[in-house]
UniProtKB/TrEMBL annotation:
Residues 195-477 form the Hydantoinase A/oxoprolinase domain. Residues 6-176 form the Hydantoinase/oxoprolinase N-terminal domain. Residues 489-659 form the Acetophenone carboxylase-like C-terminal domain. Coiled coil: none annotated. SUPFAM superfamilies: Actin-like ATPase domain. The gene is hyuA. It comes from Ktedonobacter robiniae. Pfam families: Hydant_A_C, Hydant_A_N, Hydantoinase_A. This is N-methylhydantoinase A.
């Protein structure tokens, strides 16, 4: 059998497949089948003729995300401590829109009658105040069975300090035939609302993920190992994904960030901003050596405290529609034309002006070269759609198109500022890695606005998330709340981390990771006494040093620190990482005499210094024909099957040793 690794990313429109065999990559795209995503995966594998040869398949899935966003999970119940059935309803007493008089909170994933109390009580140290009442537990299980519940979430008060009651409830619930999600297994951490919400999300999608993965495994050869991407940028076994389904909620976007870090490192860059534009949204993330993480995620309005890559998403993509608000200002997104009817240029009946239509009007998208020539765009329909916007603005069609691009770029710029400037990082110190179907169209203009000096366009931008699944490590996260003053935490933190490390090594061993390939990373969640938020600090078995690092990070993040203020250790965290062999990019030497020739020239418009539309005669290049060491001078357009790349005026680019495009800003008057 050929040694074959396959990465799969399931998107809303396309399912992307990247296969790695004998050090070489091959990519393939098939239309997604949302009703059963496994059908598209299997179809693509059969079209490639590799189904029987796959050794490992790593899958970035949207099944969990879509189930929450569309509220199509299984009927779920909650068992909690008496007096706490309404914790999901009460939440943090915050409103989605602070000043709206008609603001409506998102209702919990299960109605009140499926949130059942049992008699038991622990104090904050885990000591038993009221023993678990078995009769109340039996009544709770009977009530949930009568309600037709399939999955049960269990979140008892202070179970993170003592999980014994919760384990007994979980055991009885499993005996009763329920899919069980217990907070002491999913998230043994304080904060009642977030812990309960995370546990409920895990129960809500768990049976769906289980059934989906079982169907996929039945169709794959028995010798194929199936792995699933997690929100934290690592992969886990299919069996682990079934029991901890909530860890896959941002599976696809996380894979894109991992892929961006991988291709950037191949080109010698470690500080990058990943910039992924699809048809509906833009996902951005900061990679400061490693991808920035958060434990304050939100999926469909429901909080989750499981570690995930800190990805910020805005409703701005190629299908985003331009519209006017009540004040007459031009807005773009978050409403999207989607794939059907799609932008007017798709010729499927769409009539609203979109970002894609703007690029067609400006000459940046070439109708004959879209999707490698397999789909021709309707330039006349794009012009007609843009004419409506132009009449409202009182300008030309070209000015309206530039206006839409400027507005959507402003939305994307704001997203990048959230994960960089607002986190205390200067975007000028980073490289912008642009991918997705529309990322390379906007990257240089975004870099200009943020004064980012370099832009990197991967070899296969449209399938980078699928590539990311292949290069991800096996990763397990563990957390335990200890809530101690820093001066008292040294011994407890060290002891707890030792226990978590043992668990991590055992779990990775079950995943087939050799002991010499396991790396352990230790962290503390620290805060000033009285604060309601923490910072994650690397821990080298010295709490005093961790406190000093906390003061420095607090200064960077929030602009102030106080070395005289008492510090509290809230949680201890551990990452157990199984490091696998990464595919190596083939590096090539630049040719002595590099000849870069366009295959066509066309008119394209860009924004001038005063905001006016300037027309240029622009060379058009085929990406596959660009040699290593080849230099391009903007303005230019580069086309390939999965995307179109725009190099604006005052930018120049080159093809590096691993075939990535690296663009740099050129100051006025500077020689190319």
């Amino acid at each position: 059998m050929t040694h074959l690794l396959v990465g799969v990313d399931t998107g809303g429109t396309f399912t992307d497949i990247v296969l790695l065999r004998d050090g070489g990559f091959k990519v393939h795209k098939v239309l997604s089948t949302p009703e059963d995503p496994s059908r598209a995966i299997l179809q693509g594998l059969r079209e490639l003729g590799i189904l029987e040869d796959i050794e490992v398949l790593v899958h970035g899935s949207t099944v969990a995300t879509n189930a929450v966003l569309e509220q199509k999970g299984v009927p779920t119940g909650l068992i909690t401590t008496a007096g706490f059935r309404d914790v999901l309803e009460i939440g943090r007493q915050t409103r989605p829109k602070l000043y709206s008089l008609r603001s409506q909170k998102i209702p919990p994933l299960m109605p009140r009658e499926r949130r059942i109390e049992v008699k038991e009580r622990l104090n904050e140290r885990g000591e038993v105040l009221i023993a678990l009442d078995e009769a109340s537990l039996e009544r709770a299980l009977d009530a949930l069975q009568s309600a037709g519940v399939e999955a049960v979430a269990i979140s008892l008060l202070f179970s993170f300090a003592n999980p014994e009651h919760e384990r007994r409830v979980a055991a009885r619930a499993r005996e009763a035939g329920f899919y069980v999600s217990a907070s002491s297994s999913v998230l043994p951490e304080f904060r009642e609302y977030e812990r309960t919400s995370t546990t409920v999300l895990n129960a809500y999608i768990g049976p769906l993920i289980t059934r989906y993965l079982e169907r996929l495994e039945q169709e794959l050869p028995s010798h194929t190992t199936l792995r699933i991407m997690q929100s934290n940028g690592g992969s886990i076994s299919s069996a682990m994904a079934r029991s901890e389904a909530a860890r896959t909620l941002l599976s696809g976007p996380a894979a894109g960030v991992v892929g961006a870090a991988f291709v950037a490192q191949a080109s010698g860059f470690t500080q990058t901003i990943s910039f992924d534009i699809g048809g509906t949204s833009t996902d951005v993330a900061l990679i400061n050596g490693i991808a920035t993480e958060t434990t304050n995620g939100m999926i469909g309005g429901y909080p989750t405290r499981l570690p995930m890559i800190d990805i910020h998403t805005v409703g701005a993509g190629g299908g985003s529609i331009g519209w006017f608000d009540t004040g007459g200002a031009l807005r773009v997104g978050p409403i999207s034309a989607g794939a059907n009817p799609g932008p007017a240029a798709y010729g499927r009946g769409g009539s609203a002006a979109t970002v894609t239509d703007a690029h067609v009007v400006l000459g940046r998208l070439i109708p004959e070269a879209f999707l490698g020539g397999t789909m021709k765009l309707d330039a006349q329909a794009a012009q007609q759609a843009m004419q409506v916007t132009a009449e409202r603005l009182g300008g030309s069609v070209e000015e309206a198109a530039l206006g839409i691009i400027r507005v959507v770029n402003a939305n994307m710029e704001a997203a990048i500022r959230v994960i960089s400037v607002e986190r205390g990082c200067d975007p000028r110190d980073f490289v912008l890695v642009a991918f997705g179907g529309a990322g390379p169209l906007h990257a240089c203009e975004l870099a200009d606005a943020l004064r980012i000096p370099r832009v990197l366009i991967p070899t296969v931008p449209g399938v980078l998330s699928a590539l990311g699944t292949l290069v991800a490590d096996t990763l397990k996260d563990y957390v335990r709340t200890i809530m101690l003053p820093a001066e008292e935490a040294q011994e407890v933190a060290t002891t707890v981390l030792g226990e978590l490390e043992q668990q991590g090594r055992e779990d990775l061993a079950h995943e087939g990771i050799a002991p010499e390939d396991i790396r352990i990373e230790r962290y503390l969640d620290l805060r000033y006494v009285g604060q309601a938020y923490e910072l994650l600090i690397p821990y080298g078995y010295d709490v005093v040093q961790a406190v000093l690092d906390f003061h420095r990070m607090h200064e960077q993040r929030f602009g102030y620190s106080d070395s005289h203020e008492r510090v509290q250790v809230v949680n201890v965290r551990l990452k157990a990482r199984g490091v696998g062999d990464k595919p190596a990019y083939e590096r090539r030497e630049a040719e002595e005499q590099v000849d870069v020739r366009p295959f066509a020239r066309r008119k394209a418009l860009f924004t001038g210094a005063m905001g006016e539309a300037l027309a240029y005669e622009v060379p058009v290049y085929e990406r596959a024909s660009l040699p290593v060491g080849g230099v391009l001078q903007g303005p230019a357009i580069i086309v390939q099957y999965d995307t179109t790349t725009v190099l604006p005026p005052n930018w120049r680019g080159s093809v590096d040793a691993v075939n990535n495009l690296v663009f740099e800003h050129v100051e006025e008057g500077e020689s190319a």
